[in-house]
Design goal:
- A hairpin with an 8-residue loop joins strand 1 and strand 2.
- This protein has a single domain, classed as Beta Barrel (Porin), CATH 2.40.160.20.
- Helix content is 8%, strand content 58%.
- Strands 1, 2, 3, 4, 5, 6, 7, 8, 9 and 10 form a 10-stranded antiparallel β-sheet that branches.
- The protein starts with 6 loop residues before the first helix and ends with a strand.
- The protein contains 1 helix and 10 strands; from the N terminus they run αββββββββββ.
Length: 211
């Protein structure tokens, strides 16, 4: 079953980003930069456990202060997620999926002593491509190029960052699907209604513009 958000929702999110960043800067701090790193992920409700799937993530960010120590931040990023289940000693049980997403995260950050940063936010995403592999490591033929997964999704995330120098820091972020990216069927319990992405990201960031 393939259900998705209507595209106007994505346009509304982009509009919010534009309004936030195009307001007069005045004396408020503004930063922009780049980041990159690794995702380790699993899919909840698919029967395979463990953060075994590695993927690459990278993007750009811009933020501005709206209150002392508090910042709005928007990002444009790519992220790879999925599932990896290695074969057993007999070569059986192999399973792998790869999802490639374009994301537009929006978050609020709290910066303590210019070094310790906490963040919380949400992230609309667009599924670019999807591929699955079966037990004999062959690609699974798909009637739908997205495999029945939603093209448009929404995630919630929280994380921490440590800026070891003013222009460079390392961070850890936890991201979880706010809605199932694949619907199994109608269910009384929301968490039983489909599959959910569960992702940990470790990234290194560089501020091009900083205080």
């Amino acid at each position: 079953m393939n259900r998705s958000f209507k595209s106007p929702a994505g346009l509304c999110i982009i509009g919010v980003f534009t309004v936030l960043l195009c307001q007069p800067v005045k004396a408020q701090q503004f930063n922009a930069g780049l980041f990159g790193g690794m995702n380790t992920s699993q899919v909840d409700r698919d029967g395979y456990g463990g953060y075994n799937k590695l993927g690459f993530t990278a993007g750009a960010f811009a933020n501005r202060e709206f209150s002392p120590h508090f910042y709005w931040q928007m990002e444009i990023k790519y992220g790879g997620r999925g599932v990896y289940h290695p074969p057993d000693d007999n070569g059986n049980g192999y399973y792998k999926t790869s999802f490639h997403y374009f994301e537009l995260p929006l978050s609020v950050h709290y910066l303590h002593q210019e070094k310790f940063q906490g963040e919380i936010g949400f992230s609309p995403d667009i599924l670019i491509s999807y591929v699955a592999y079966d037990d004999v490591r062959n690609k699974v033929p798909l009637e739908d190029k997205l495999g029945g997964n939603r093209r448009f999704g929404l995630n919630l995330f929280a994380g921490v960052y440590y800026w070891f120098i003013p222009s460079m820091g390392v961070g850890l972020r936890f991201t979880y699907s706010a809605i199932p990216f694949y619907l199994i069927g109608e269910s009384v319990r929301y968490l039983d209604s489909g599959d959910f992405h569960n992702v940990l990201s470790l990234t290194l960031a560089y501020k091009i513009v900083h205080p």
